[in-house]
């Protein structure tokens, strides 16, 4: 299948033909749709500021070990590149170093695969030090085993001061430098992860209820975060508009404050090197008390996108977390289409721009936070504990009994465990239990 455009412009440096190979193995995968995957590749290319001049699709039983696509299709691709004045070929699947080298030599253009394209977009989006480190680590981890396939110049002998050695080639020098750089980046990332872990532990001890927004890229997570918390976050109708995670506080009607965290969007065939590098960031979902799975209900590929998110959450070990599915963008559907949106478990149908829908979402968060009422006996001079109780629960009643405060609080079981963790830090033997009732926790 061959498609080309009729107008060729030269405003962008990268002018590409996109190539997709559909194998029998891919056809057997439930979460794979070749037409949608190619359409998504076009969107990725445009996001990376690449001018798309045409597409080429081949159906084949399996990938060719030398050319990836068949030799005849490679000849057809060469003709397309020359006819359209393209200088890049972007493949919808991941290529080996040998395949890149062979195609680059035969086609005489830059060869990029889906993984490299996504990594390039992430490199453009990274703003924080952590994001920049994670992207560079993913890029180098991807490049190292494929180094021999990226440019003839990499195999030439090194020259100039600092590169001379007993027969050391530039390729070997590049490999050594990349390994050293990977080791340094991993060291820096480990330090960043350590700080992030400390922040998580502080949040746990403070008893703040944590909610993670997860979902396919461009599902509207950042828009929801901005509408709910007035957060100053970048919002745009494009893939991976935001990369670095953003956490903001949300005050519920009961007065309790919770933390909402917007995570990086998922996508089909999310590069493994990227998942590994961003694991510390993605694990915000794993550490959350509740996951809001934000779904773009306006796209025909909604079922595939939902399965992709499920797969990534399972890989992260967060599949069993409490979850609410939020079908977003219902304002783009007809009422009958919106009524058909359903899934297993708890779900909501919302538009991030409708105040009533946002209120229902906040009420849902409040319901997950609420739980059984407990009565706590806390020494009146323990202001930090009293403050904690107000933060994590709804204080229904309080009173004074001697030197202690009696506080009846509605709190869910998870928050009760957090308060219990803090209570255990005090010496319970200082207080006589007396007749305090079966539902009274004391310090």
TrEMBL record:
Record's keyword annotation contains Cell membrane? no
| PROSITE patterns the UniProt entry points to | G_HFLX (PS51705)
**Residues that, per the record, bind GTP:** 215-222, 240-244, 262-265, 328-331
Compartments where found: Cytoplasm
- Name any one GO molecular function: GTPase activity
What Pfam families does the database record attribute to this sequence? GTP-bdg_M, GTP-bdg_N, MMR_HSR1
Q: Which PANTHER family match?
A: GTP-BINDING PROTEIN 6-RELATED (PTHR10229:SF0), GTP-BINDING PROTEIN HFLX (PTHR10229)
The record's listing under Gene3D superfamilies reads: 6.10.250.2860, GTPase HflX, N-terminal domain, P-loop containing nucleotide triphosphate hydrolases
Protein name per the record: GTPase HflX
Identify its protein family: Belongs to the TRAFAC class OBG-HflX-like GTPase superfamily. HflX GTPase family.
The record's section on InterPro entries has:
G_HFLX_dom, GTP-bd, GTP-bd_M, GTPase_HflX, GTPase_HflX_N, GTPase_HflX_N_sf, P-loop_NTPase
Q: Which organism is it from?
A: Paenibacillus mucilaginosus 3016
List residues of the Hflx-type G domain. Answer: 209-373
Q: Which residues bind Mg(2+)?
A: 222, 242
Assembly with partners or alone:
Monomer. Associates with the 50S ribosomal subunit.
* Obligatory cofactor(s): Mg(2+)
Give start-end ranges for the coiled-coil region(s).
168-195
Q: Which GO terms describe its cellular component?
A: cytoplasm
């Amino acid at each position: 299948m061959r498609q080309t455009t009729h107008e060729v412009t030269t405003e962008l440096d990268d002018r590409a033909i996109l190539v997709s190979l559909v194998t029998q193995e891919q056809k057997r995968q439930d979460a794979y749709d070749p037409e949608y995957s190619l359409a998504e590749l076009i969107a990725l290319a445009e996001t990376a500021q690449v001018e798309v001049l045409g597409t080429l699709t081949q159906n084949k039983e399996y990938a060719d070990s030398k050319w990836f696509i068949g030799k005849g299709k490679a000849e057809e691709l060469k003709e397309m590149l020359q006819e359209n004045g393209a200088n890049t070929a972007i493949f919808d699947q991941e290529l080996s170093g040998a395949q890149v080298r062979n195609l680059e030599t035969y086609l005489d253009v830059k060869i990029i695969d889906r993984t490299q394209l996504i990594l390039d977009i992430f490199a453009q989006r990274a703003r924080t030090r952590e994001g920049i480190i994670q992207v560079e680590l993913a890029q180098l981890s991807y490049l190292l085993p494929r180094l021999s396939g990226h440019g003839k110049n990499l195999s030439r002998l090194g020259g100039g001061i600092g590169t001379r050695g007993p027969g050391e080639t530039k390729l070997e020098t590049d490999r050594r430098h990349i390994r050293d750089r990977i080791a340094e980046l991993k060291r820096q990332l480990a330090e960043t992860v350590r700080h992030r872990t400390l922040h998580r532990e502080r949040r746990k001890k403070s008893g703040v209820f944590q909610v993670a927004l997860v979902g396919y890229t461009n599902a509207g997570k950042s828009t929801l975060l901005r509408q709910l918390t007035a957060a100053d976050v970048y919002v745009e109708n494009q893939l991976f508009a935001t990369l670095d995670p953003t956490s903001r506080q949300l005050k519920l009607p009961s007065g309790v404050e919770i933390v909402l965290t917007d995570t990086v969007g998922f996508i089909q065939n999310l590069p493994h090197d990227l998942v590994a590098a961003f694991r510390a960031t993605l694990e915000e979902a794993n550490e959350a008390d509740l996951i809001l799975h934000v779904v773009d209900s306006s796209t025909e590929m909604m079922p595939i996108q939902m399965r992709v998110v499920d797969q990534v959450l399972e890989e992260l070990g967060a599949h069993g977390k409490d979850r609410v599915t939020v079908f977003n963008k219902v304002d783009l559907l007809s009422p009958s289409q919106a009524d058909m949106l359903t899934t297993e478990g708890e779900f909501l149908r919302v538009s991030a721009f409708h105040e009533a829908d946002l209120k229902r979402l906040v009420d849902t968060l409040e319901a997950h936070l609420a739980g059984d009422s407990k009565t706590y006996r806390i020494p009146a001079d323990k202001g930090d504990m009293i403050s904690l109780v107000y933060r994590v629960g709804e204080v229904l009643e309080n009173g004074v009994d001697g030197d202690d405060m009696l506080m009846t609080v509605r709190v869910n079981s998870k928050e009760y465990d957090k308060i219990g963790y803090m209570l255990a830090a005090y010496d319970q033997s200082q207080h006589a239990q007396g007749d305090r009732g079966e539902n009274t926790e004391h310090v």
